[in-house]
Specification:
heterodimer; A: about 100 residues; mainly alpha; Non-ribosomal Peptide Synthetase Peptidyl Carrier Protein, Chain A; about 55% helix; B: about 350 residues; alpha+beta; Gyrase A, domain 2; six-stranded mixed sheet; flat
């Protein structure tokens, strides 16, 4: 496996762990980290978050990853799954969304 | 009507079909809750008219039904895709907890009509009344004549299943078709619904559900309650303890994909495509692939599937119009003047 891909996978895995931890510790999702499927819907049927949680989640992610989320459209499109939150963090960190 | 036109009707307008693929059982009696609680991996603490999506598992932990449980006063409705009504009834009786269990198959007394699209709520309000508009997702409404309107779509758009008593069928379907042309109502196929389900990463029992996988590999752990026992639980826990090796992952492919195709990274096979559809909305194929767990992650470029360039991505890959259509602010008649974002997301498009 090429080193860039390996580095991307390791970085993404770390971010996934941190996002899962935010969901468990700050949003009180009652699951073990590895029981939170990365593509599970955040709201309604999935992890059961609601519109109040959405605001809280943004604040917690801004704090955890030290960025500001002022773009409402980006926020909306990012608040769908755990993986889409990780994509958001990657984008805010200025890294490439995709790995070579 | 082509599949593409059917998908467009679901994505942009209104679409309907006779949903014989959905079987419905009414479950009642003193043993109703205990039996459903035993067979459903999801927690079933439901209020009246509330729904809960779940899956039904075999003893070996593999999924055999994509199911939704609805609480109907002191009774329950079990809506399922996968098994026939007879198979589902037999399976429930096999796992009954107590003898006072009444199962009524609604396939003899009711028909299921399915309605989808960003404007489905508006058409349905014209047919069933304005209460439809305020329905929360995963709830149902009791309508005149005994029809139940269930809001639980799997396309990413507004979606409703109408459980219509046979005596009311002609009237309800007639009204739907009479009002329908005002919303460009189109009749669509199950194939079109499954196409949209894959684009939106809803589990489909007829596609990825047909490969004998457990919720662990299918990414459906969120449909399991971690705190309860259920049919198949021991097998799922044993599989988890022994280490899950693959996970379903969304792959975008720049050409036609065959189901079963190998997913290659640097010439090495890392998984297989379980299902795939040509997404004209994205201009590429969307595939659900079972990939090695360490590589089951979005953002991996440089894959090859059936000789075409491919990459993993985060689903859903559609920026659904229904996310942006508000019954309080929009109408079908004024849709052209509304400013809706494109159907593609930046990362996936």
């Amino acid at each position: 496996m090429n080193p860039a891909l390996m580095a991307y996978l390791e970085h993404r895995t770390r971010l996934l762990s941190r996002v899962r931890r935010v969901l468990i510790e700050d949003l009180h999702v009652q699951r073990e980290p590895d029981a939170i499927d990365p593509d599970a819907p955040l709201f309604g049927t999935g992890l059961g978050l609601d519109s109040v949680d959405a605001v809280e989640l943004i604040v917690c992610l801004e704090t955890e990853f030290a960025f500001r989320l002022d773009d409402a459209a980006l926020a909306r499109s990012s608040m769908r799954t755990v993986n889409s939150l990780v994509d958001l963090v990657l984008r805010k960190q200025g890294g490439a969304y995709v790995a070579a | 009507m082509s599949l593409r036109d059917e998908v467009d009707a679901i994505r942009l307008g209104t679409a309907w079909c006779e949903a014989s693929h959905v079987v419905v059982l009414r479950v009642s009696g003193a043993a109703a809750f205990a039996t459903l609680d035993r067979v459903c991996p999801a927690a079933l603490s439901l209020q009246d008219t509330q729904l809960r999506p779940t899956v039904l598992l075999r003893e070996d932990g593999t999924v055999f039904a994509d199911a939704t449980v609805a609480r109907d006063d002191e009774r329950y409705l079990l809506l399922a895709e996968g098994p026939t009504a007879a198979e589902l009834e037999s399976w429930l009786r096999q796992h009954a907890v107590g003898s006072d269990l009444e199962l009524e198959r609604l396939d003899h007394s009711h028909q299921v009509l399915s309605l989808h699209g960003p404007w489905a709520w508006e058409l349905l309000a014209a047919v069933l009344g304005p209460d439809v508009i305020g329905m929360p997702y995963l709830s149902f409404l009791r309508c005149e004549g005994g029809t139940l309107c269930v809001r639980a779509g799997k396309t990413g758009e507004y979606g409703y299943e109408l459980l219509v008593p046979n005596a009311e069928l002609e009237a309800v379907r007639g009204e739907l078709l009479e009002h329908g042309p005002r919303w460009n109502l189109a009749k669509v196929s199950l194939e079109a619904l499954d196409h949209c389900a894959l684009e939106n990463w809803f589990f489909t029992i007829r596609r990825e559900g047909a490969f004998g996988l457990t919720p662990l590999e299918l990414g459906l752990q969120w449909r399991l309650s971690p705190a309860k026992d259920f049919v198949g639980a021991a097998a799922v826990r044993a599989r988890k303890a022994s280490g899950v090796k693959t996970r379903l992952t969304c792959v975008l492919v720049e050409g036609e994909v065959s189901e079963g195709a190998a997913v290659l990274l640097e010439g090495k096979e890392i998984g297989k495509v379980l299902s795939a559809v040509p997404s004209h909305t994205l201009g590429r194929w969307v595939a659900a692939a079972s990939l090695e767990l360490s590589l089951a992650m979005p953002g991996i470029l440089g894959l090859t599937v059936d000789g075409h360039a491919a990459r993993t991505t985060s689903p859903p890959v559609i920026n659904n119009r229904s996310l942006h259509v508000s019954p309080q602010r929009h109408t079908w008649a004024d849709r052209e003047s509304a400013q809706f974002p494109p159907l593609t997301l930046g990362a996936a498009g």
